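Notes from hallway chat w/ T.B., transcribed later so I don't forget. T.B. wanted the structure written out for a chain they're using in a teaching module, and asked if we could keep both sequence and structure tokens in one place. Agreed to drop them here.
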Amino acid sequence: MRGLVTATHRRHYVVLLDDGRTIVCLIRGRSLAIACGDRVEVSLAGEADGVIDAVEPRSSLLFRSDAHREKLLAANVTQLLGIVAPDPPYDDELVHRWIVAAESNHCRFALIANKKDLPSFAMLKSRLAQFQALGYTVVATSAAHDATNVAALLDGQRSVLIGQSGMGKSTLINTLLADARARVGELSASLRTGRHTTTETTLYSLGAEAWIVDSPGMKEFGLGHLSPAELEKAFVELRPLLGNCRFRNCRHDAEPGCALQEAIADGHQLLADTERSTRRLA
């Protein structure tokens, strides 16, 4: 049997089979790494239980990593949606890390600026202008009241929604999808997780081939799996300059003939900011 992974919680996985049935699966052995959005092959172990035997080839895999471990977010994604708000405090470097993750997976990236009804939203909006200048979509919304403009981003896309706790991810999902609360209750019962607090990653179908994955809140987004070359290519404003340095292994720091440093010296302030970000992320 084949199916789509629609929820993950610890070592339990909900799989929507191609015949329309939904089962809860374990994995065979410990070598498999499973994410929401994965297409998998399963063996039935009962009426509503199964075992995941294999993962079909992926078109993309979004995950975060540090020196010690990796945390899978979603597979076969075409779009990463980052959600920010004035409160909790906005983290500029975290957004840069989301963009790097999206670009390194050849995914679209868009920012959802939530809680536009708050007085402090004007300051947040001005800080997000830098991403609009790079060509990324920034949508202002108040998820608790109306998410029509966000819904337009989801059409035909396989999206993953990420953000810090308290930014309004669950509120946005509930506004976008009328049956989201019912879906959460159903999954919590199936996975025996009790009261749901977005501790599992959940996929919601949007019809046809489109879906959105709601991920747990995160304070950090490690990129330890990316090489320095992959990091610099993920900054769209650096791409025209890459390969123009005097030395092939230029670190864009103090080496002579560095194209990035020359651009900064010519007054490209945005490049200066990005060059510092590249070194921090590395």
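Follow-up for T.B.: The radius of gyration is 20 Å. Might be a good example for the class.
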